[in-house]
């Protein structure tokens, strides 16, 4: 969420950077190529999160999968992605960001090919889990390559804005592409990313900057922290995704949550005592980073929940085809994609602390507007206005939250910061989606009549809007803190200050 930190205008003293144009000169073709390769990988990661949803009915029919088994085609990816992101971020810091990115991208391409060729539900779920694991390593490695290649300030803001809007575009356009590809056959939703991933891998090998490897004598591998932390995240995501079928108050769910709590407690104690922790807990003393992660959890969680409700409403209640439903989301994805080249300049001018609350407010308004749904809602009266608000909100909030989550973090911990914010996205998605599903089931009472479905959708939308309000509150608090603490200690006016909150406090 909002950073209490405004983006800095210049690189930190002594900060190494491969960016040849920190003062606004045109970027070289090699630098553009590096950025585009990283954008392609994030686009594929995000695409995979949303693209499989429309194809699920066809997959279930073709492979003869039950509803409970079919859910794991989605949950398997989320489990691998959300559960291993922290480990992926730390691996990038310890083993080398370029190396981790290249290996993970190759695994992603292979898993995509496997998913498109299998004839077994178990193998398909396994391929999806493997893709999630690969994405858990490419996402933090790619983000940390950007934050260590581009100097903090306008250059990094521009690069991160383009990068993150590519991710948001992939998530938004995944439904559209899935609708088109599913019409030709569900396997194409798995095979389409393969040539793109292979091409990105070939180009990445040539263009990604080679950075000095970590000094092996000065680092550590915190095996106990990796086991307890990753175990807690994997079990949490698994428990939440299974809670609907096992029962939220069931023995298995409660027992699993107790084990999660025990693992999390052990993880925190280990991180406090070890010399080289997987997660240095001191990173959360940076208020902007902490608020950014809270907002990321609520931001992505609310949107994932909304997309689920809207998909059910448009296809089940209104009877729209998969392609019609996918095209209904197109305006939101288009707004996000078109904004990519402008967001860097907006962040430079206004700062993340102003843009984030504005973006979350637009998202919340879009969710609230959709509460007017009924059994005969039209596209122009309900869907289009909501999509325009959601597209605007995501375009403003998604790049800003990524910038806020990595600002003021030293280079050696950029992988950690990137892993944290991506973990927040995925865990938020799993938690809110599970809650949304539970509310729909309870509200509808299992009925399939139009009124029963509406009785489930409306309270679910209220839950989603409430989660978004949490993000709005956190971002608003951050904006107030930022306004009070980011006065330039050298006397520069607030509106042109480019000093982060932490630097101001340190200067004082």
TrEMBL record:
List the InterPro entries: MFS, MFS_dom, MFS_trans_sf, Sugar_transporter_CS
The protein's location, in the record's own words, is:
Cell membrane
The UniProt entry lists the main location of this chain as membrane
Q: Keywords for this entry?
A: Antibiotic resistance, Cell membrane, Membrane, Transmembrane, Transmembrane helix, Transport
> Disordered: where is this region?
1-25
Membrane-crossing segments per the record = 35-57, 69-88, 100-117, 129-150, 162-182, 188-208, 220-240, 246-268, 289-314, 320-343, 355-373, 379-398, 419-440, 460-481
Pfam families listed in its UniProt record = MFS_1 (PF07690)
Domain Major facilitator superfamily (MFS) profile, by residue range, is: 34-483
Q: How does it sit in the membrane?
A: Multi-pass membrane protein
- This protein is called what? MFS transporter
Q: Which organism is it from?
A: Kitasatospora kazusensis
